[in-house]
Design a protein that fits this description.
Radius of gyration of chain A: 17 Å
Structural class of chain B: alpha/beta
Order of helices and strands of chain B: HHHEHEHEHEHEHEEHHHHHEHEHEEHEH
CATH superfamily of the largest domain in chain B: Type I PLP-dependent aspartate aminotransferase-like (Major domain)
Number of strands of chain A: 8
Oligomer: heterodimer
Structural class of chain A: alpha/beta
Number of strands of chain B: 12
Number of domains of chain A: 1
Strand content of chain A: 15-25%
CATH superfamily of chain A: Alpha/Beta hydrolase fold, catalytic domain
Radius of gyration of chain B: 22 Å
Number of domains of chain B: 2
CATH architecture of the largest domain in chain B: 3-Layer(aba) Sandwich
Strand order of the largest sheet of chain B: 1-7-6-5-4-2-3
Largest sheet of chain A: 8 strands, mixed
Strand order of the largest sheet of chain A: 1-2-4-3-5-6-7-8
Chain lengths: 265, 431
Amino acid sequence: MKFRINGAQVYASTGGREHVDGQPWLIFLHGAGASHLVWSQQSRSFAYGGFNVLALDFPGHNLSEGVPLPSVEKQAEWLKAVMDHIGVATATLVGHSQGGLVSLAMADKYPEKVERIVFVATAAAIPVNEKLIETAETSEPVAKSSMTAWGLGPDAHHFENSVPGFSQVGNGLRTMDLNQEGALPADLKACAAFENGLEIAGRISCPTLCVLAGKDRMTPLKFGKKLAEALPDNRLHVLEHSGHTIPGEAPLELNQFMRDFFNKE
Amino acid sequence: MSDFYDIDTMALHAGHVPDKEFGSRAVPIHQTTSYMFKDSRHAAALYNMEEGGHLYTRISNPTVAVLEQRVAAMEGGVACTACASGMAALHLVTTMLASAGDHIVSTAQLYGANINLLKNTMPRFGVETSFVHGRDLDGIRKAIKENTKFVFCELIGNPGLDVLDIDAVVKIADEAGIPVVMDATFCTPYLFKPIDHGVSVITHSLTKWMGGHGVAIGGAVVDGGNFNWGKSDKFPTLTAPHYALDGIVFWEEYGPAALTMRIRAEGMYNFGPSLSPMNAFHLLQGIETLPLRMEKHISNARAMVEYLKGHEMVSWVKHPELPDHPDHETAKRLLPKGAGSMIGFGVKGGREAGAAFIENVQVASHLANVGDAKTLVIHPASTTHSHISAEDMKAGGLTEDMIRLSVGLESIDDLKADFNQAFRSAARAVA
């Protein structure tokens, strides 16, 4: 679906289904340099499974217009505006990587809008290497290639895939190409500047699920575990063989963990 | 060091990780038509394309998927769909991108069946093609119309061995807002990676160098994922709601892989040009040794070019690495590892001498294929291109006396000895 926030077009995948009154809302938030496409194995699955789905493109990413937002806090403000515009009173947020930071910021400032959070391959802080930010600013294709390489685990580097014929390497690179120039460095800087995540995590009152990856080179497992330990009401799953891109690398496992979590709550 | 594995490693490993249950190192052959659903929800999920998996081998199959993922990896694409043959691949691309009333621009230097599909079959379904010589860049530009959906080409033309200036053609297509589709059978990703040069869709006959063994027919469509289908309203098959799947819009839902998902959801469903799992297995065995084979193909081809040039029974030799080839400079720029293992040559004495030569080779095989590990020879004018008009033959650089040689991996000394005795027979035939 397409709508406008602050005058700019916003795109959100509904997972191929119309929203239905009374169904719970599930909002997917992508990571740095990515877009709603990272959730292609989740958005349809949950939309056909009884949820109203919004898999968003942040401003300046893929099909959403506008300028990439410079901070995690501003991304949370934008998310609040999206929810208000559509009339979503409360939703489960599913945040991958940077999307996890946005979920933390959202739960901190607007706890009434957040019913549950699923943190996917993320941490309370993502202190991005300065060299990577510099490369993203001066040579975006090189940074995209490095991030795609670091973002995928060993099976994805062997082109093993649950979707027949797909290359996660190819899709990772080309998906980033669909974003506005400058979106990647803006995201990386926003991640690097977000520093009080651990403190926020300790205050989060809603139920949370952390799904982390054993072969994550972007947000290493030990940092994800710190977040999981800080969350008061958390369930943790570790996918030992996955890399950072869990939604694409281990979609069936992630979807099952989410369903189990939702069914329990 | 690259961020990703080199092509030599991909040829052996891409697309397959040993399964957890048995640890099979080789790719297992899933010789099955169908797959057990876990429950009705799982069945619905597969039909709705909610998640990955296999429901029926006409659509996808685990062994075929390994082949697809391997070819996608080697070409640097976002996805690949394997199919029954190289011709099935071109048919899939054409029907997924063009509809009645649409138009294609194609270079004229093509494999005969590619010409036939575009020139004689597709017009019956309302899709017209304008053919332009690959060196006539201005002609290509002028042939593009408002309803043109893509430019089709081969890098190394079959059988004339013309080498296309693909960088210039991609630039022309870019300016017109349409993608370039290339049949890359003759170069394979070992010699040339079309996506790195801006080509958006690749078709392959995997039967040829990729398989290399001559035991399995197969084809593939590689989706480069580098074309923005949503930039215009030219491609409604990808940007407008699909007739099924609750009106899915492939471009919005799958972005760079939109074309592949349309091929899977419509092309494989409705046309059914599926590749058998056994053939996929055979093709995978071939691909494992592609880099090694291509090195030998190229070294043997270079040696045969020199040999033929010096033979008294040979009237002319055509290969892009020869300085007198009209595309020599283009070949040097685009094909630094080698300009392929196809050679064209004329036998002195015309058609009769050519026939005698072909009938007397003993190591080389007289048959209708190219890219085999074994050396192959054929007379295109009377076989592969016999259904092509004289005018199209001329446009494709094909002459009556031409022998098409696909150089294999045999001992170069044995090949030369075989050709020597066959040339002697040819000389006797016209004496």
